[in-house]
Amino acid sequence: MQELSVRHLLGIKEITPADIQLIFETADNFKEVLNRPIKKVPSLRDITIANVFFENSTRTRLSFELAQKRLSADIVNFSASGSSVKKGETLLDTVNNILAMKVDMIVMRHASAGAPHFLSKHIKANVVNAGDGTHEHPTQALLDAFSIREKLGEVAGKKIAIIGDILHSRVALSNIFALQKLGAEVMVCGPVTLLPRYISALGVKVELNVRKALEWCDVANVLRIQLERQQMKYFPSLREYTLYYGIDKKLLDSLNKEIVIMHPGPINRGVELSSDAADSQQAIILNQVENGVAIRMAVLYLLASRV
Amino acid sequence: MQKRLIVSNQLLQIMLERLAQQLIENHHDFSNSVILGLQPRGIFVAERLQKILQRIVGSPIRTGRLDITFHRDDFRRRENPLMANATQIDFIIENQQVILVDDVLYTGRSVRAALDAMIAYGRPQKVELLVLIDRRYSRDLPIEATYIGQQVNSLSSQRVLVEWRTPETSEDNIWLITKTEEK
């Protein structure tokens, strides 16, 4: 019997390739569960999970909540807006108060990088990172890699280009770690102002020309321009970004091969990805969303055995 | 560790033939009946029975695989987490007569989990249980088999091992294994 090498899922950096494979194999079984007439199993019926979101989220939060409900866990939802955090309560006090209500696991999203790592050192409950600032978003990277594996058979040996706002993206960093651990080649592509200066130290190729990146890759993971995180102007205008880095069907059709298009959502339609590209047969964006529930079920199930 | 042969290769073949005949007696041509082998070891019994039944009945017997991992009651009560196996049920069980098949009936907890898992696929008309070995006086739950290969009396410290033919071994055997304390 295998088990995860970690008690918390804080980031992809902390887990092993064997952990990722175990999560994938477990998620395969949960995908089957999600296609049953009754999409619910009683595995976590004695577990209480708190979803602690200090930042806005739609997809991730819904996906985690659905995964928890499918596993029969009891859940409590906490969002920072309208909470005691606004009255000056610290993160640790907030979480300890939630834990005092006999909560076993914490799924947390926070604007500060390292917040879940800090928390994991101070509390007994298992912590799942649902995104921490511009640092990591491990479950998104797992579902992305799982979707590639599902579409192309395996991740090893595949060429994946991550295109767009790499600088502000937690998805990009987690994806780089996950894909490299699974044996894929990774390239990042975007305006030089949106690429971290020493990104090549992570062992990724760097490309400034989107067409060259698309010609090189098997899969393009297109990222959103994160205007909410940008403290200054990184490019003259959205129109100019779209002109140089936007991907549309015409560009995809002009390539000499058919590549897979991914996007972690939400899409800025007409900016990084046109509607005809996002809705094309090449896009697996909705498959990613579906796989998100199975992956999160797998993560919660495997971590729950260590509660 | 001591191994005692409780069902030999020859006896096991006879046992499977008998169980198949008993099933035919109640299910006739299997037009309204399906077999579900319980993962992980019940599937081998189900596959053997399917072959014998198809030979006798002369028509395909609908056989599936049911994984019970996510429905077990000992998750987080074991040293190791439970790894799931694939569930493969390519037919509707609604209003069908379902025969659950496992290799060994011991505490009854696996069968309880199987009933729970099966309900996710519909409401069967009737459910029966077939086991190769029934470990008597060991039940934690009020569950009994409809069809039994052989009943054995065993201690809780013992284990029943059903060994199926592989490229390395030419025989099917059922063993009673007793762990011996090393002095």
UniProtKB/TrEMBL annotation, chain A:
Ribonucleoprotein in keyword set: no
InterPro entries named in the record: Asp/Orn_carbamoyltranf_P-bd, Asp/Orn_carbamoylTrfase, Asp/Orn_carbamoylTrfase_sf, Asp_carbamoyltransf, Asp_carbamoyltransf_Asp/Orn-bd
Gene3D superfamilies documented for this protein: Aspartate/ornithine carbamoyltransferase
Positions of the Aspartate/ornithine carbamoyltransferase Asp/Orn-binding domain: 157-303
Group of enzyme by EC: transferase
Residues that bind carbamoyl phosphate: R59, T60, R109, H137, Q140, G265, P266
EC code(s) of this entry: 2.1.3.2
SUPFAM superfamilies membership: Aspartate/ornithine carbamoyltransferase
Keyword list, A-Z: Pyrimidine biosynthesis, Transferase
Domain Aspartate/ornithine carbamoyltransferase carbamoyl-P binding, chain residue ranges per copy: 7-150
Leader sequence segment: none
GO terms for biological process, alphabetical: 'de novo' pyrimidine nucleobase biosynthetic process; 'de novo' UMP biosynthetic process; amino acid metabolic process
Molecular function per GO: amino acid binding; aspartate carbamoyltransferase activity
Residues the record lists as binding L-aspartate: K87, R170, R224
Reactions catalysed, as given in the entry: carbamoyl phosphate + L-aspartate = N-carbamoyl-L-aspartate + phosphate + H(+)
PROSITE patterns to which the protein is assigned, alphabetical: CARBAMOYLTRANSFERASE
Annotated pathway: Pyrimidine metabolism; UMP biosynthesis via de novo pathway; (S)-dihydroorotate from bicarbonate: step 2/3
Assembly information from the UniProt record: Heterododecamer (2C3:3R2) of six catalytic PyrB chains organized as two trimers (C3), and six regulatory PyrI chains organized as three dimers (R2).
Role: Catalyzes the condensation of carbamoyl phosphate and aspartate to form carbamoyl aspartate and inorganic phosphate, the committed step in the de novo pyrimidine nucleotide biosynthesis pathway.
Family: Belongs to the aspartate/ornithine carbamoyltransferase superfamily. ATCase family.
Alphabetized NCBIfam families for the sequence: asp_carb_tr, PRK00856.1
Cited HAMAP family: Asp_carb_tr (MF_00001)
Protein name: Aspartate carbamoyltransferase
Organism for this UniProt entry: Adhaeribacter radiodurans
Encoding gene (name): pyrB
UniProtKB/TrEMBL annotation, chain B:
Phosphoribosyltransferase domain: residues covered: 9-152
Protein name, entry field: Bifunctional pyr operon transcriptional regulator/uracil phosphoribosyltransferase PyrR
Top-rank lineage group of the source organism: Bacteria
Listed InterPro entries: PRTase-like, PRTase_dom, PyrR_bifunctional
One Pfam family recorded for the sequence: Pribosyltran
Species per Swiss-Prot/TrEMBL record: Adhaeribacter radiodurans
Keyword Hydrolase: no
EC number: 2.4.2.9
Gene Ontology molecular function terms on file: uracil phosphoribosyltransferase activity
Keywords per UniProt: Glycosyltransferase, Transferase
